[in-house]
Write a structure and sequence with these properties.
Blueprint lengths: L2 H20 L6 H8 L2 H35 L2 H9 L1 H150 L1
């Protein structure tokens, strides 16, 4: 295996190990996000896209070269030469095997390279979603506590209103009793006033009659005085 294909094979093994490590179930997405938040990655982030696309181009070139080699050694001309010479046949099959091996190595390296980027993106998204869910859960817990507190306050308020309503009902009952007593007193006072008015009216009528009788007697008195004065004058 040449140096370039050895490097690609090592790169493939590293990708397999890294993808398996990223898929380990007991390492949560939050931990991976914490790892991805290291200062080293933030320092390498400006070069990450360039490195990613550079590796894609390199792997695509190697994949196309491997495809060309496979087509080259699986064509009719090498096979015809291999049928003529047995040594050439072994050599052609060895070249074909190596080109197919290189094809698989470069193809899987390219595929896992894309998969690894997607896995890292999904882990970050899952961690962000978990953080958002944690925030929403905290907000929901706060809302539930606030709702429970409001419910307790409403219950206390209802109890206070019921107690106040009972007190007000007792006061209203007392006021009704007092009003009834006052109405009875007012009716009694009205009756007394009516009787007093009747007595006053009777006394007024009596005093009027007395006044008329007094006037009559006074008139008779004057008449008697006049008669007396006339008699006295005749006697003289």
């Amino acid at each position: 295996m040449t140096l370039q294909w050895t490097a690609v094979a090592l790169f493939l093994y590293g990708e397999i190990a890294l993808n398996l490590l990223l898929c380990v179930p007991f390492v949560s997405a939050k931990r991976w996000r914490a790892v991805f938040s290291w200062r080293l990655w933030s320092w390498l982030s400006p070069y990450w896209n360039k490195c990613f696309f550079t590796m894609i181009m390199v792997l695509v070139v190697l994949f196309l070269d491997a495809v060309r080699e496979v087509q080259k050694y699986s064509g009719p001309e090498p096979m015809q030469d291999a049928k003529v010479n047995p040594n050439v046949y072994d050599h052609v099959h060895m070249k074909l095997f190596r080109s197919q091996r290189n094809l698989y190595i470069s193809g899987f390296s390219l595929f896992l390279w894309l998969i690894m980027r997607r896995v890292v993106t999904l882990l970050n998204q899952v961690a962000a979603t978990l953080d958002d869910n944690a925030g929403l859960q905290a907000q929901m817990d706060g809302a539930v506590k606030a709702a429970k507190r409001c419910q307790d306050d409403n219950l206390l308020l209802k109890q206070a209103l019921l107690a106040e309503e009972k007190v007000m009902s007792a006061k209203n009952q007392q006021l009704r009793s007092e009003i009834e007593k006052l109405e009875k007193q007012v009716k009694a006072a009205e009756e007394v006033v009516r009787k007093s008015s009747a007595e006053v009216e009777a006394m007024r009528r009596q005093s009027k009659g007395l006044a008329q009788e007094y006037d009559r007697l006074l008139t008779e008195h004057h008449q008697l005085q006049n008669v007396q004065s006339t008699v006295d004058k005749k006697d003289q």
